[in-house]
Amino acid sequence: FAELHAAVAGLPVGSSRVLPGLVLRRDFAAYCPAGGDLRAVLVTEPLQPPLPAPGVEFAVDSEGQYQASLRWISRRTEALMKHLQRNNVKLLLSSVKQEEVVLYHAKLHGVSVVECLSSEEIALIREITGISPYAPFGDNIHREITETAAATFCQPLLLGSKRYVHVGFTSVCAFQPHCLILCGPVDGVNEQHAAALQGAFTMLQQLFKRVDQ
């Protein structure tokens, strides 16, 4: 329930509504409007490629070497974004904060980025879509991306004074997610309404569980 409702203070209760899909409590780090077939990937690691291998010390002896390293990182990141673009990936959902070079190349190649998602949000998206996080820096950066989710829409959503991400996924299970937008004059009223609704849903779950048995 915590991931399937959003509270908005300063609006009348009558503005409350139910929206299809998920409302992620983040704004886009990079936004590129897109229509048609949307593919999304999950990542749980920084997409800026590491210079040294794990456990290997990397030493830079001159400014020239440092600049060359930055150019290598930029080219590698650009190659990754081109690879995502070729696989029709237009949405990158990240549990970690990405570097500016990643956001720069994402914008250039039409890939929207949402970062710093919670572990609960990532788990919910995985449950809905059935995909696992994408690990780009394996043996072959250009291998086919199989862990992608289909999204029917992806757009900014303004609730009160805050911007959120509104995304609809094609679910691989019977669960079709909808998000409850709770509006009220102050936070306290919204908290009361949320607690009451969560209690009602819990009661209904118990009721249907007994009926099934």
Automatic annotation (TrEMBL):
Q: Which GO terms describe its biological process?
A: chaperone-mediated protein complex assembly
Q: Which InterPro entries does this one have?
A: BBS10, GroEL-like_apical_dom_sf, TCP-1-like_intermed_sf
* PANTHER family (alphabetical): BARDET-BIEDL SYNDROME 10 PROTEIN
Protein name listed in UniProt: BBS10 protein
